[in-house]
Design brief:
Blueprint lengths: L8 E5 L2 H11 L3 E4 L5 E5 L5 E6 L19 E6 L3 H10 L3 E4 L9 E5 L5 E7 L6
Parallel strand pairs: 1-4, 5-8
Antiparallel strand pairs: 2-3, 3-4, 6-7, 7-8
Length: 131
């Protein structure tokens, strides 16, 4: 018998409250604090499950990395027609563009750094909503 499991992507941050607030607003979710003051979950509809953990020695990752190795990042699916608006929303919340060339069409992918420096990508999905 397999033990039931769930998973969550955890991002480190020196200021977990601020980063949880950023993602809660960006993903139309809510930040939920449990008993651990250094751990905040961001939960929402459509399967959003992310957590932020306080790391007192946190240093932001670099992107792209010089050695071209893959690192984890958050991929946020957006309806193709909503890409420009999603980009404006992310930047207004504190995201910093890393690579935002407009690829126009179903392969439109734009990469940002969140307020703590983690990379995330807005990716267009042609003909369907992000839901």
């Amino acid at each position: 018998m397999t033990v039931p499991k769930t998973s969550v992507l955890v991002l480190d941050s020196a200021e977990p409250e601020d980063l949880a607030d950023f993602y809660a607003k960006l993903l139309d979710a809510r930040a939920r604090r449990g008993t651990d003051p250094d751990f905040i979950e961001v939960v929402g509809q459509n399967g959003v499950c992310l957590a932020i953990r306080r790391d007192h020695g946190y240093a932001p990752p670099s992107w792209p990395r010089p050695d071209d190795s893959q690192q984890a990042h958050v991929l946020i699916l957006v309806a193709q027609d909503d890409m420009d608006e999603a980009e404006r929303e992310a930047v207004s919340l504190g995201a910093r563009p890393v690579e935002t060339r407009d690829n126009s069409g179903p392969r439109d992918i734009r990469t940002y750094a969140d307020p703590a420096g983690h990379s995330f990508t807005l990716a267009a999905r042609e003909g369907r909503s992000a839901e």
